Amino acid sequence: MACPAVVEEVPEKHCWVCFATEREDVLAEWVNPCRCKGCTKWIHQSCLQRWLDEKQKVNSGGPVNCPQCGTEYRIVFPKMGPLVYSLQHVDKTISRVSPFAAVGVVVGTVYWSAVTYGAVTVMQVVGHKKGLSIMERADPLFLLMGLPTIPVMLVLGKMIHWEDYIVRLWHRYSGLQIRGRPMRRVPLEGTLTRDHLSVSRTLCGALIFPSVASLVGRLLFQRFPSSLQRTVLGGIAFLLIKGTLKVYFKQQQYLIQTNRQILNYPEGNGESERDGGSQRGEEYAEDSE
Amino acid sequence: MACPAVVEEVPEKHCWVCFATEREDVLAEWVNPCRCKGCTKWIHQSCLQRWLDEKQKVNSGGPVNCPQCGTEYRIVFPKMGPLVYSLQHVDKTISRVSPFAAVGVVVGTVYWSAVTYGAVTVMQVVGHKKGLSIMERADPLFLLMGLPTIPVMLVLGKMIHWEDYIVRLWHRYSGLQIRGRPMRRVPLEGTLTRDHLSVSRTLCGALIFPSVASLVGRLLFQRFPSSLQRTVLGGIAFLLIKGTLKVYFKQQQYLIQTNRQILNYPEGNGESERDGGSQRGEEYAEDSE
């Protein structure tokens, strides 16, 4: 901003935003909101208001200081009536409470679905009619507490990776001899246990388990008359089959990692030999020993 | 790595990881995995495997190159049996499908809660017994489609901020004269419409509306025998009362923003005068005109 040399004694007001002087707009309201002297002392009230609006877009409603001398502008508002004051209070309270209420809605949604899932599972396990009659006779409080624990227990149960313990025990007691020859190396832990981190897989596996147990029960244990017996046996059978396959699979993965081999660079060299990588699988039989 | 000058002719193998030579460990397996010549040509198979494990911790399973010549190491694995192969395929498929299944679980949870909420709302609006009998007689498919639309419609309805339109219309047709004197300024749009962004407030307000309508109906319209009539009238009454208060509140907020005033810096200056900010409210009456 160019500041005219004649400042003191008869200072003509001069707005540092629009550069207009007192003579150019006689009616305009002037304000000197800060400790600035000289050519940045005066500003139009309306120019400062506009400038303040722009500033407060960023720090909505916070204090604004003079960019030159740093004085905080003193902004006053007309007094609120008691109704407006209480409405503002109500508005603020609602704004403060509503996030917690929304969390409550989400928790309620999850809880209610867990109750429903629990009820459906009970009917699936003991049979539709018997399940209904059991739940009708039971204490409602017990149902509201007990039914949601069913999916929780299923998920917690799914988080026990018992197959891994068996694989680890197997490794410990089989020693370092596998198929009679010394093991090349022990692979890093992380490479084999990556799937534990999948939340979605744990959740889905846990929630689908009763249906699978019921299905396996109906397929393998038809001669049992009771739906409960069939489902429990089906669940145990499924767990055993799946566990066995998983232990076998993990053990094979472990062996594959253990017997990984890095090949010599093909000595004939040149570009033609570098394509030989596609025959890696075949080369291995000769190369691995 | 210090590389001995004698390299060609009778090159003694020399591992560039553990610095051991051929004579130090006669049984160790050697590999020259890349185009490197000289002292970085040879490495122990076991040393390279360890080094590879460290590298693959970061880019799990990806290709690894020689840090010197950039040749990609050729890593081979023993061939998998058909069972392991298919197990791996199943494992990968489950890992790929489970995120979608988990999304399905979440959607199902929300859907089921919406159905339940819809059913509770129907019973709240038309009365418990009548609601139950209506839903028992209705087509199940219609219920499964119709009931979840109730909370959806409530939320969509809550998103229509009709009070704002009224406030805006009021401003447009009242012109720039408010209470007989010209308006100081027009506040920025953003400062008054901030609460629209609150998702939690919209959600909670929408979901609590039927309960509030039912309550207001029971309080104000006791003489109506039908629960449906009471609730509908209660809802309308609540919307009108709330809307009127909101329009009034927004209008007052608008006026407060419009008549914001920035004060002159107290001329007596010095530190003592700067505390005068606490009396801003009182000063305004004299200062605002």
From TrEMBL, chains A, B:
Residues 271-283 have a biased composition (Basic and acidic residues). It is found in: Mitochondrion outer membrane. It is a multi-pass membrane protein. The keyword Transmembrane helix applies. It catalyses: S-ubiquitinyl-[E2 ubiquitin-conjugating enzyme]-L-cysteine + [acceptor protein]-L-lysine = [E2 ubiquitin-conjugating enzyme]-L-cysteine + N(6)-ubiquitinyl-[acceptor protein]-L-lysine. Pathway: Protein modification; protein ubiquitination. Its EC number is 2.3.2.27. It comes from the Eukaryota. Residues 266-289 are annotated as: Disordered. It is an enzyme of class 2 (transferase). Residues 7-76 form the RING-CH-type domain. Keywords: Membrane, Metal-binding, Mitochondrion, Mitochondrion outer membrane, Transferase, Transmembrane, Transmembrane helix, Ubl conjugation pathway, Zinc, Zinc-finger. SUPFAM superfamilies: RING/U-box (SSF57850). The chain crosses the membrane at residues 100-120, 141-160, 199-220, 232-249. GO terms for molecular function: ubiquitin protein ligase activity; zinc ion binding. This is E3 ubiquitin-protein ligase MARCHF5. It comes from Muraenolepis orangiensis.
